[in-house]
Amino acid sequence: MHAPISLQMAYAQAMLAFTDKKREALSQYYQIQVEYVQKRLKKMNLALSDPAYTVEGTFYVVANLSRLFGTKIPEKVTKILDTKGVISTDQEISYSLLFQDRIMLSPLSFFGINPELGYLRITCSGGIAELTELLDRLEARL
């Protein structure tokens, strides 16, 4: 399947107007948010332990939420995932955060990473105020 021709044309026109100056401004906008999230995750001991991990050219940060392994799976989540007991995968973490804390993060197992690592992706595109609220909720949960 392909995007409709009208959408392809709109994208092409947008790219014609996307100057280096606009690209740099967009990059700086996201960089500020990514750095903020990385600092907060490090402070909460949720940053990836790999010192070589750096975010370049994107607005996603990966968090290690394996600390939630072994906590009880909320009842609502047991119905959705048809599982009971304690959290042991990134998907269980994701649904638990969504239903208990109204935090929506993407499990990296959706992108091919081992679900037993507990890695989730934080999208840093909503602005500092929204990211602060998200990270405050996450910190309260932990």
Brief summary of the model shown:
By secondary structure, the chain is mainly alpha-helical. The chain has helices spanning 5-16, 20-43, 75-81, 90-101, 128-141, and strands at residues 60-64, 106-107, 119-123.
Q: Keyphrases for this structure?
A:
142 residues, single chain, 3 strands, 49% helix, mainly alpha, 5 helices, three-stranded antiparallel β-sheet, globular, 8% strand
Structure description:
With 142 residues, the chain is mainly alpha-helical. 49% of the residues lie in helices and 8% in strands. It is built from five helices and three strands, in the order H-H-E-H-H-E-E-H. Strands 1-3-2 form a three-stranded antiparallel beta sheet, covered by helices on one side. Helix 2 runs parallel beside helix 5. The N and C termini lie far apart (42 Å).
Q: How is the secondary structure organized here?
A:
Layout: H1 5-16, H2 20-43, E1 60-64, H3 75-81, H4 90-101, E2 106-107, E3 119-123, H5 128-141
Antiparallel strand pairs: 1-3, 2-3
The dominant shape is globular
User: Kindly, what is the distance between the CA atoms of the first and last residues, rounded to a whole number of angstroms?
Assistant: 42 Å
Instruction: Determine the oligomeric state from the structure.
Output: single chain
The biggest beta sheet, please? 3 strands, antiparallel
Give the overall average pLDDT. Answer: 89
What is the radius of gyration?
18 Å
Helix share bin:
40-55%
Widest sheet, order of strands: 1-3-2
Strand content: 5-15%
The number of helical segments is 5
H/E element string?
HHEHHEEH
Structural class: mainly alpha
Q: Spans of 5+ residues with little confidence (pLDDT < 50)?
A: none
Q: How many β-strand stretches?
A: 3
